[in-house]
UniProtKB/TrEMBL annotation:
Catalytically driven reaction(s): Couples ATP hydrolysis with the unwinding of duplex DNA by translocating in the 3'-5' direction
Helicase C-terminal domain ranges (all copies): 229-379
A GO cellular component annotation in the UniProt record: cytoplasm
Protein name, entry field: DNA 3'-5' helicase
GO molecular function annotation: 3'-5' DNA helicase activity; ATP binding; DNA binding; four-way junction helicase activity
Family annotation (Pfam families): DEAD (PF00270), Helicase_C (PF00271)
Length: 441
């Protein structure tokens, strides 16, 4: 392992990385679920030099399925800097030809390119496919979230639902990577990829440094009142405004919030940016570069889940979800972008009743909970329990019973400093009550 650590400039591999690599080298499938930023990628990156050292007379390619081009670019650039040959399908015609010849150590692809294209499927059945020694599904939770319909809508990306077909095209172990997957999701994914005797490495998804808040507002509340605190912070602090990420459940919601901010801000609007799947790749690259700098120009990012993957957020200690994601895994992925450096952070879920259709059972429980520790409620979806936590640092429910005599108000979310009392909705008899009849479980 020492040679591997030198290649990747690591002091030493973590125990879960060693365990995953050992199982893969035995030819076993691995399901790896550890926290965002823990170092999942090293488990397939290091596999290549380990395999080639053991099999000096054979070539090795690793096929990695990624949801976003931005992730592919980031990973291929990194691997090339380390001296590996890496590319992604569709980058350019010359490199596509070289992929067909089996000339790359690492091949990245979207599901649409590799499963939805007859030519690339045929490639996997030829000599180049025979060199594939490991199949990796990065952000594996998207296989279920994007590849399956919910009874109302068609799948967001149907080829994600067909990724299991790759198992019949390449003869090698499979590595599934994700930051969050509850027991039900793990079982479904392992069935989809025909993973027998799969070695599971599952971490408790708790983020001890993030305080959890939930607040319900009236559906009739104008956005400029809901996000009044954002306007105030930008006007007062401008480029020194604490960086905030606001996740929305749709591109339309992103646009509505940005439009509202344009109407309420002047020059400060230059500190606001939007990120979703329809944003041009060149602009996404500029945004990513800015967010990689904790003192960057972007102080407020309005985003969909597209920014929940493949974007390195630095200096973010406040994440807001405007409307609950459909499932707990997505929620944990998104608010987990806060406090990546371990510093105390905040995650606020703002919602109204009309945003609560089609939630899964775990997310519904979390949204409707008013008296149980939010961390305890969240972790119950993963059969985990929270570690001990100071009450005023845990969640807004535990905060109410804190008796530590410290200045707990220092850990209150800025939303509550500015929020008008009449925008809150707490009466279940309101017309804004949760639409439980519309939930699809």
């Amino acid at each position: 392992m020492a040679a591997i650590e030198n290649v990747f400039n690591l002091s030493e591999l973590k125990e879960f990385q060693k365990a995953a690599l050992n199982e893969l080298m035995k030819g076993n499938d691995v399901f790896l679920s550890v926290k965002t930023g823990a170092g999942k990628s090293i488990c397939y990156q290091a596999f290549h030099p380990m395999w080639t050292k053991k099999n000096t007379d054979r070539l090795c390619s690793i096929l990695v399925i990624c949801p976003l081009i931005s992730i592919m670019k980031e990973q291929t650039d990194y691997l090339c800097r380390l001296g590996f040959s890496a590319t992604y399908i569709g980058k350019d015609s010359k490199e596509d030809d070289d992929i067909r010849m089996g000339d790359f150590d690492f091949i990245f692809s979207s599901p649409e390119a590799i499963v939805g294209n007859a030519d690339w499927r045929a490639m996997l059945l030829g000599p180049a496919g025979e060199r594939v020694r490991l199949l990796v599904i990065d952000e594996a939770h998207t296989v279920l979230h994007w590849g399956e319909g919910d009874g109302y809508d068609e799948p967001f990306r149907q080829w994600y639902g067909k990724l299991g077909e790759l198992r019949s095209l390449v003869d090698c172990p499979v590595l599934l990577l994700t930051a969050t997957a509850n027991r039900s999701a793990r079982k479904k994914l392992q069935q989809k990829f025909s993973m027998k005797n799969c070695h599971e490495i599952v971490d408790n998804p708790e983020r001890e440094n993030i305080k959890l808040f939930v607040h319900k507002v009236k559906a009739s509340t104008p956005l400029d009142e809901v996000f009044y605190f954002v306007v105030q912070l930008l006007q007062e602090k401008k480029n020194s405004c604490p960086r905030i990420i606001i996740f929305c459940t749709s591109i339309n919601s992103c646009g509505q919030i940005v439009t509202m901010l344009r109407l309420n801000l002047h020059d400060e609007i230059k500190y606001v940016q939007m990120y979703h799947s329809k944003i041009p790749e060149s602009i996404k690259d500029e945004i990513k570069l800015d967010l990689d700098n904790p003192d960057g120009n972007i102080r407020v990012l309005i985003a969909t889940s597209a920014a929940g993957m493949g974007v390195n957020f630095k200096g973010v200690y406040n994440v807001i979800n405007y409307g609950p994601p459909k499932d707990m895994d997505s929620f944990v992925q998104e608010f987990g972008r806060a406090g990546r450096d371990g510093k105390t952070s905040m995650a606020l879920l703002l919602f109204h009743g009309k945003q609560c259709k089609n939630l899964d059972s775990d997310m519904k429980t979390y949204v409707t909970n008013t008296d149980q520790c939010r961390r305890e409620c969240l972790l119950s979806a993963y059969n985990s329990k929270p570690t001990s936590c100071i009450k005023h640092l845990c969640c807004d429910v535990c905060d109410k019973s804190c008796d530590c005599n410290n200045n707990c108000s220092n850990y209150q979310h800025p939303f509550f400093e500015f929020v008008p009392s009449d925008i809150s909705s707490s009466d279940s008899s309101d017309s804004d009550s949760l639409c439980f009849a519309d939930f699809t479980i």
